[in-house]
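INTERNAL AUDIT FORM
Audit reference: QA-55
Scope: verify that the stored structure record matches its stored sequence.
Auditor: D.O.
Record contents follow.
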Amino acid sequence: MPSERITRLKTALFARPREISLERALLYTESHRQTEGEHVQIRRAKAVQYILENVQISIRDDELIAGNRTINPRSGIISPEMDPYWIDKELDTLDSRPQDKFFISERDKQIYREQLLPYWQGRSMKDFINSRMSDEVKQAQSTRIFSVNQTDKGQGHIIINFPRLLNSGLGLLTQELQTCCREHPDNHFYRAAALLLEAASAHIRRYQVLAETMADDCHDNQRRQELRDIARISATVATQAPHDFQQACQLFWYMNIILQFESNASSLSLGRFDQYMMPFYQASLDRGDDPAQLQELLQSLWIKTNDVVLLRSSSSAKFFAGFPTGYTILLGGLTETGRSAENTLSTLCLDAYQHIQLPQPNLGVRVNELMEREFLLKTAETIRLGTGIPQIFNDEVVVPAFLNRGVSLEDARDYSVVGCVELSIPGRTYGLHDIAMFNLLKVMELTMRAHENTPDLTYERLLTDIESNIRHYVKLMVQGANICDIGHRDWAPVPLLSSFIDDCVVNGRDITEGGARYNFSGVQGIGIANLSDSLFALQKFVFTEKQMSFKQLMDGLNSDYAGESGRKLQAQLSHKYHKYGNDIDEVDDISAHLLRVYCKEVEQYSNPRGGHFVPGSYTVSAHIPLGMVVGATPDGRHTGEQLADGGLSPMVGKDHQGPTAVLRSVSKLDNYLLSNGSLLNVKFLPATLEGPQGLNKLADFLEAFMKLKLVHIQFNVVNAQTLREAQQHPEDYAGLVVRVAGYSAFFVELSKEIQDDIIRRTAHQL
């Protein structure tokens, strides 16, 4: 059971409605007005420095770890320097929109419209990107085949080199950058990074002063001592490397908050926490610290990760519903020499999560042939709780996938995940992982419409044209993504973050300039299940069985299966023909072929940072809005109906042969090509995992997943009836956490469309 402190901290986090804070935006703008004419990296650094010097700070009741992005918990902050326009359009609907609501006062609306919007109009990154997009790319985006992302926010989806921070300390790192400045006085990156490292230390000292003041005014002996401990630890880690677990956790969290002020971005992820934190945990044990107190400290840290929520536009919230902040951690895995990396802290991280059961941190576990059965059972035990955490990644596929991208063996073995399921090398990669989404089913729809009146159309010609159109639109997607990439370079560099990414200091360049060791651009191919289901039914129904001409089929699709004849057609296409996810080679081979066409086309292209594009296949929650822009399809989908969830999951309700058949279908894809990440959702009935037998069955299923060479899998373990009751009585289920896509969220905070999708997913038994 969690301690009384942990219960109070968890309750306090959700005691207030979510609101908008303008503080960062106002401070950033105030600085920006004073630095006209200076280099963009220096302007950016001075603005963040000004925020760190002036933003309000607090230490909340019961906290053992200090550091908050906003005074009030779970507040959204805005970045008008990125895109001021969507904020203006949505100020009056933020508190009433269907997904991810925030309150903003009338006074703050006025401040935004009178002070912030006029300044940033014409000065934002969005203005720059829009001015560079060609008419051809704009027209292609209007088809809804692809969308270029990250045009309205700072770039995250990255893991800093936490060992560099924790083992060196800010003082030594500042000295290193100051030396670089002396040796290269004209290098703007060195100057900006050095300035921000100094600002980070000064910001931490502000907490030292605050804790000392609060301690002097505190009349509770225990709390007074805790505040003095926070002051002492803050004074230490402001410049020195930490020596124990509490110091390491405190510096770790301070830096996470500080980086949020620089980027205001999603998925500044946490990497392999159990690996880099284990020496500090052991140091605390060696000096006699109480393991129960260390566990309470870890639980406190887990709660802190839920304090940062991201404000997104209403359209973006549909794609990333439920505040997926992306504080993602992977446990276990391999050492750089290829041995099992599981340790005591790996298990304790799962134990801490079992007590907290909140959406963050987004824990995952790496599985491999060397994994101990005991840790696998602990993983299965945590999955069985039903929150969708942890998710599972497969070393037997991911390591070779990175080798295929030119990553060294040692670095590949050190992989982790940013955001939801995006694969990355901690501290060495700027992967621009979510730069675009590509709707494969929309390509099929437009290709079919182009052939609506083609005489003597063959299936082979249709398939060839689909492949040709995939290549055509991938090329345009790359052009748009590269313009966005340049936008981040020229308008939103991140010198502090870059100083913690390997090779940036050596190269003297920000990550946005190509300073990182590995430079990828990740784009997701979505809709592969619906695409293969549609083409298989189309091939059989029209071209093999000749039950209807292609034109007649198109008439039925264009009418969205209207009338009695349409309903019969829809039923026949839905139920007569095999579907992906049931281990049927004829269908699965279509998926494998077209996904490979997409992947091989994507990987041909390079980005402005000297790296390459890499494909992935995951949807976050985008399968809902992406389905809305696709008409009726030959798999029996109605116009606007969702696509298959996840990325590689079967279409909702179409996987009839059990969970092992799903694994076998996905195993036929060339998963080694999906080095940007993929996503497979599986839903189990709770009863099937009960008791020791159920736990062992789940562990065996995870071993089958590993041996079949899939990249990723995650689970919901919940009854549909429970979810329906939560839908009807949300006040009774405020703490119900479910798996959405590559992340978990509170069920009652999701829109009805996403709730319905989760309810409809096939619930399997083992």
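Auditor finding: record pair retrieved intact. The longest strand covers residues 518-526.
Action required: none
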